[in-house]
Structure formats: C-alpha cells, structure tokens
Design brief:
heterodimer; A: mainly alpha; 12 helices; B: mainly alpha; MetI-like fold; 13 helices
Chain lengths: 292, 315
C-alpha cells in the first residue's frame, strides 16, 4: 500500500464532510440555503442597502404601484414598500432565530439531563413534557401577549418556551443511545465530571438531529410570529414585520394589491427555502430518518 | 379498552385544572383593568363596579368563587357587554365556528386523502410530484396570506364569490372553508402518502393481491385502514391549529364566531370572556386529542390488542 493511500485510509471522512457532500448533491437544499443566506445578508445590511430611510414618508405621493423610483411601490403614507419589507424582514428573521435559540437552549439542556441521568429524574422530566404537550399553546401565547403587553422580548420568550418540547424529546432519544457507548464509559472511567461529559461528549455527538430540528423550527416560529402580528397581538408599530405588513396589505388589497402580494411573497419564499434547507440537512446529517 | 379510555380521561383532568388556574391568575396580572377605558371612570363609580363584579375580594376568594361557578356551568358576566353572560356569548359564537371547522376538516380530509392515496399508488410519477409540490406550497402559505389572496382573486378580480359573511349570501362559506382547510389538506396528503407507501409494501397486501382481489378492493378495504393511521393521529393535534386558524379566518371574512370573540376579548381585556373562552377552547382541544388518540388506537390492530390485554399503568 502506498503512503498516500494509507494516509487517506487513516483520515477517513468525518460525519460533517460526509454530510456536506450529500447536501451539495441535493439541489433543492442548496437552493434553499442560498435563498436563506441571501435574505440573512440583506437583513444584516439593511440600514446600508435600503433605498429609503425607514421613517421616510411622502404623504402627497400616497400609494403608488411599483415604479422605477419605488421598485415595489409605496403604501398610503407614501412609504417605500421595499424598504418596509427589508426592515420587516430583520424583525421576522430575528424572531425566528432568537426564539429558536431559546427553544434550543431549554430543549437541549432538558433533554440531555433527562436522557443522561435517567431513572426517576428522566421519568419525571419527560412526564412534565408530556403534560405540557397537552396544553393548548396557541391560546396560551395569545393570553401571554394580552397579559404582559406586546413587547418583542416577551414574544421571543413565549414562542421559544413553547417550541422547546419537541427538541427535548429528540435530544433525550439521542442521548439515550449515546450514553451507553464505550467512549462515554471511557470518559467516566477517566474521572470526568458529569456536567463535563454532558457538555463535551454527549451534546456534540447529538448535534446532527439538533441542527436539523432547529432549522425546521425557525420557519414554524416565523409563522407563529406572523400569525400573532396579523391578529394585532405580535409586533407593534412603529416596528414592522412581514406578518404586520401582510395584515396592512390585506386591509387595502382591493385598491393596492401590491401591498399584500410583495410582503406575502417575501414570507412564503423564506418559509419555502427554510423548509427545503431543513429537509436537505435532515437527509444529509441523518440518513436514517425517513421523510414523511 | 374501556380502562384505557378511563385512564386517558383521568389524565385530562389535571391538565384542564392547570389551564383554568394558570389562565385565571395570569389574566389578573394584566396591566389595565376592564374598566380603564379611554374615558377615565370616576373612582367612586369604578369602586362600585368592582364591588358589583366582586373584583374587590381577595384573589384566592375570587378564584374559589370562580371554580364554584364553573362547576355549575356559569362563567360569569361579560365585563364589556353588560347584560351578557360569558357562556351565552360562547354559545352564540359556537355554531359558526363549529360549522367552519367542520367544512375545513372535510376539505382537508377529502382533498388530502385523495391526493395522498393517488400519489402513493404511483410514486415518483407526475401523479406524485404535482400534488406533493402543491402540498408543499400549501404548507408554506399561511392561512392569513392565503385568505386575503383568495379574496383578492375570487372576490375582487373574478367576482365569483362573496368576500365576507357567513350564511348571508349563497356561496359565502366556500372561501373561508377552503382557506382554513388548505394547509391541513396539504399535511393530510403528505401523511397519507407516507402511510400508504409503507402499507402497500407489506406482506398482507401481497396476500390480498395474490388472492386475486381487484386493485381497488385491495386499496380501499385493506390498505386504507392501516395507511390512514398517521393521518388520524395527526387530526387531533391539528384541531388546535384549526381553532387558531379560525381566529384568522373569522377575522378576515368577518364571521361572527368564537375566534373573533376571543381576539376581540383579548383586545378589550374582557377578563371573564378571555377566561371563559380559553377554558372552553382548551377543553375542546383536549377532548379532540383524546378522540383522535382513541381512534388511532382502535384502528391499529396491534395497539388495540395491547390495550385490551394490558392492565393500564404506563402508556
């Protein structure tokens, strides 16, 4: 055997390199990732990219259909729709990412502890998750928004607090299979502390399903935010989000249909892209998981 | 089986109790009472009003009073609509919401199952790809966007269907029902396709075919029963989403249903109304979860067998 071949055999391919190869073959997933990437970059650079200032309005101009000066038209206050969609997208994406992170932290912590400690702790913790599953959460979130005022921070927390349940279940299942493997036993026999083993050995090895589920949670969360904003219970003016823009658009759609169609397109395309990206990641990272 | 039903019913009670208690205390934390209108009320009048509705009692006493009333089916008076009891308001909004939810469910099941079965019978052909791509669009198109778009196209541009109301004009129920049902039709189609694909490769389907049964009998009598289990298990949890969707659809199409009352009560800080509606809707959701669970269990021969032979305990 030549030296080069031996090197190659020794290196092998890591899970991540392997997954990356699979992901690149999936055209829909690559498309989804590019679209999501594009929207994220635009959202970050919005203050510099937006054609008009966020507060800029032109009451004399009023609502105009798309034109050279206003690519996507203007609303009844003469505000540039493209600018509003770009700023709204920042809020929508931020809600998606932050609320998912909240769900991620709670869910991973809960699932890891339950799965790794096991026994009675596990039983009690998972019973709590089961009980929370049975609660009608959509109604509860509306209630929270009513009671604590409609602040954005609360919206993040409320949505995140709802979405962690499935994450906890997935992580626990993953941890159960990992904790009985030899390398964990080895870590334990070396005298490493339980928190150390959990953080450095258990969590990194269940990262695949966690990433997949997190990617699929982002669109759900964005949908929830848009739903609440549409009802007037989510993001409040002067802040804006895609759900809020759709709600305004729906009010005046007979005369100014572009005010409904463009924000709607922005939301739908993003949700589409995120779902394709999530499906692709699942196929790449978790080949065993079946597609429904 | 009876034992299983009883056990599940018993499990529902603490959940319901939690919902009632949490809602009751949460709603009292709300800033701004029901009598803090735009026009400030004279303090003496406000105190009199609060005394009338027992809002001046200690919190625990209000709570126990409420629980007692609730057991008698009394949800108290509405704070915002004087002279109306909450349960009267709920009952007046229920028919429209129930009808809407029923039609939407029909849309979801009929379109979803047909599309899913047809896709599963010819996988990886146009008959599979076209409906499944449409289903993906259906899932990514939120109700609050689909509704206005349908109104725009079929109401304003084509002028085929009425754009609002419920039972006032012929055909005014079509757009709301379809709007609410579309997303679920998409989910049902995907689940049915998955379920059917798995079943169609089972041995007992081959046996049925080997017996010389015509294909439609194999599909309808043998495959559907197993293939629909994931779909049925999905319908219970979907019901909660359907109710949430009805908040949106009722708002868009101005339907005088429960969802619209709920959203309005949320804006008005109508304590008793929010409390009553939350409890009512939660009960409905819990009951539906239970029903779909039981139905899915009953349809799955393996589980049914387990249930009748195992003595409760951990499930």
């Amino acid at each position: 055997m030549s030296q080069a071949a031996l090197m190659e055999a020794e290196q092998g391919t890591s899970l991540w390199a392997d997954a990356w190869v699979r992901l690149k073959k999936n055209k829909l997933a690559v498309f989804g990732m590019s679209v999501v990437g594009f929207f994220v970059v635009v959202a970050i650079l919005t203050p510099w990219l937006a054609p008009y200032a966020y507060e800029a309005q032109d009451l004399e101009l009023g609502a105009t259909p798309p034109s050279a000066a206003h690519w996507l038209g203007t609303d009844i206050f003469g505000r540039d729709l493209l600018t509003r969609i770009m700023y709204g997208g920042r809020v929508s994406l931020a809600v998606g990412i932050i609320a998912t992170s909240v769900a991620l932290v709670i869910g991973v912590a809960w699932g890891t502890v339950a799965g790794y400690v096991g026994g009675r702790t596990d039983a009690v913790m998972m019973r709590i998750v089961d009980a929370l599953y049975a609660l009608p959460f959509i109604i509860f979130i509306i209630l929270l928004m009513v009671v604590f005022g409609r602040s954005m921070l609360l919206l993040f927390l409320a949505i995140g607090a709802v979405e962690w349940l499935t994450m906890a279940r997935i992580v626990r299942g993953q941890v159960l299979t990992i904790r009985s493997q030899e390398f964990i036993e080895a870590a334990r026999s070396m005298g490493l502390s339980t928190p150390h083993i959990m953080l450095r050995h258990v969590v990194p090895n269940s990262l695949g399903p966690i990433i997949v589920y997190a990617t699929l949670t982002v669109p759900q969360v964005m949908l929830l935010e848009a739903f609440l904003s549409f009802l007037g219970l989510g993001i409040q003016p002067p802040q804006s989000s895609w759900g809020l823009l759709i709600s305004y658009g729906a009010e005046t759609m007979e005369d100014y249909p572009w005010l409904l169609i463009f924000p709607g397109l922005a939301l739908s395309i993003t949700l589409f892209a995120l779902n394709f990206m999530g499906d692709g990641l699942r196929d790449a990272l978790d080949p065993k998981a079946s597609k429904d | 089986m009876l034992r299983f039903i009883g056990l599940r019913l018993l499990q529902a009670i603490p959940v319901l109790f939690t919902v009632i208690t949490a809602t009751f205390f949460l709603i009292r934390q709300a800033p701004g009472g029901p009598f803090d209108a735009e026009k400030p009320v004279i303090p003496a009048v406000k105190r009199a009003l609060e005394a009338k509705y027992n809002l001046d009692l200690p919190m625990w006493q209000q709570y126990t009073n409420y629980l007692g009333d609730l057991l008698r089916g009394d949800m108290g008076p509405s704070f915002k609509y004087p002279g109306w009891a909450v349960h009267d308001l709920i009952i007046s909004g229920l028919p429209a919401t129930a009808e809407l939810a029923f039609y939407a469910l029909m849309v979801a099941i009929v379109i979803g199952v047909l599309a899913g079965v047809s896709a599963a019978l010819k996988p990886n052909t146009a008959r599979d790809y076209v409906p499944m791509s449409l289903a993906m669009i259906g899932i990514c198109m939120p109700t609050f966007l689909l509704g206005p778009l349908l109104v725009l196209i079929f109401g304003f541009w084509l002028d085929w269907l009425p754009i609002s109301g419920w039972g006032d004009l012929p055909g005014d129920k079509i757009l709301p029902s379809f709007t609410l049902g579309a997303a679920y039709a998409a989910y049902v189609a995907r689940l049915t396709r998955g379920g059917m694909l798995e079943i169609m490769s089972q041995d007992y389907i081959r046996t049925a075919r080997a017996k010389g049964l015509p294909e439609h009998i194999v599909v309808i009598k043998h495959a559907l029963r197993g293939g629909l289990i994931p779909t049925i298990a999905f319908l219970g949890p979907a019901f909660a989403g359907l109710l949430a969707g009805s908040f949106v659809v009722e708002t868009i199409f101005q339907i005088p249903g429960l969802g619209r009352f709920y959203v309005q009560a949320a804006f008005n800080r109508d304590y008793t109304m929010i409390l009553g509606t939350t409890i009512f809707l939660s009960t409905l959701i819990i009951v539906f979860n239970l029903l779909s669970d039981l139905l899915a269990t009953w349809m799955n021969p393996k589980l049914r067998h387990q249930m009748s032979h195992r003595s409760g305990g951990q499930s």
